[in-house]
Design a protein that fits this description.
alpha+beta, 5-stranded antiparallel β-sheet
């Protein structure tokens, strides 16, 4: 009930000091067991924070001696009139993954890596955009035992959460608009990204048993609500930073929710 009350207060913009005091109990810099850097997903407001944490986790595994591979997407311009070199290609392709069919330009892979699918692969099998799992096997082209070229894009076996099971994920080819007037681009790559951290926007619709939130640097109404509502219970919550000033204020997080609450309060009693 305490958690539900906090979420409802955030949703309509009526969070009070007692709600902040309760959340402060979960602010910590000590992350162990299920909240460790290797296990719990961090949820941030910005893409920059996400990239920074994912990079920190990769460095953590490197220090442990984990064998890693850097995968480079294979890009081309479909209607190009001449051969295009790598430097030119970089100017023609957006760095925004949302403008490249959900396929990243570069990906660090290793057995055990936590990943998120960035494409609807098979809705019937629940292999959809946002599905989270960890890599159990890397399968290189032509029965190779390891990567030979940076442009080698392997297939991977992934054990997904929530009973989705173990599935083979193969590279995808997506077409999208190139920058400027360069026409149509094509990219071949695995449809996934590392997922030791994700933005509040990307986690909408997902739920976590254990999660670490950063409730600072919020820039949009409702971000705190979205972040907190991804966690199943207060027992599964830890907060690395909390800026209470960004959770309070006169403006509600959800105008429609506030209006509906006021409408229900004003209904005549029978």
């Amino acid at each position: 009930n305490t958690f539900i009350n906090i979420l409802n207060a955030l949703r309509i913009g009526e969070i009070r000091s007692e709600h902040i005091s309760e959340l402060m109990k979960y602010v910590t810099s000590d992350f162990n067991d299920e909240f460790s850097i290797e296990k719990a997903i961090r949820i941030y407001a910005t893409r920059k924070q996400v990239d920074s944490h994912n990079s920190a986790v990769v460095e953590h595994f490197k220090r442990k001696g984990t064998e890693m591979f850097t995968i480079i997407a294979h890009d081309s311009i479909i209607d190009a009139q001449r051969e295009i070199n790598a430097v030119e290609m970089e100017k023609m392709i957006s760095t925004d993954i949302n403008k490249t069919g959900g396929l990243p330009q570069k990906l660090t892979l290793y057995v055990g890596a936590k990943i998120m699918i960035r494409s609807n692969l098979d809705v019937a099998k629940k292999l959809v955009n946002g599905s989270i799992g960890h890599i159990t096997e890397i399968i290189w082209p032509n029965f190779r035992r390891a990567q030979m070229y940076p442009t080698d894009v392997p297939s991977v076996r992934v054990e997904f959460e929530r009973g989705v099971g173990n599935h083979l994920i193969t590279p995808e080819i997506k077409e999208f608009k190139a920058l400027g007037s360069y026409g149509t681009a094509e990219r071949r790559m695995l449809p996934m990204v590392l997922c030791y951290a994700a933005t509040a926007h990307k986690m909408q619709g997902g739920t976590l048993d254990f999660g670490v939130l950063n409730l600072s640097k919020l820039f949009a109404k409702g971000q705190a609500y979205v972040m907190l509502s991804r966690i199943r219970s207060l027992e599964g919550l830890r907060i690395e930073e909390l800026d209470s000033a960004q959770l309070t204020g006169n403006k509600p997080c959800n105008i429609l929710a506030l209006e509906e609450l006021e409408r229900m309060r004003n209904l005549p009693s029978n």
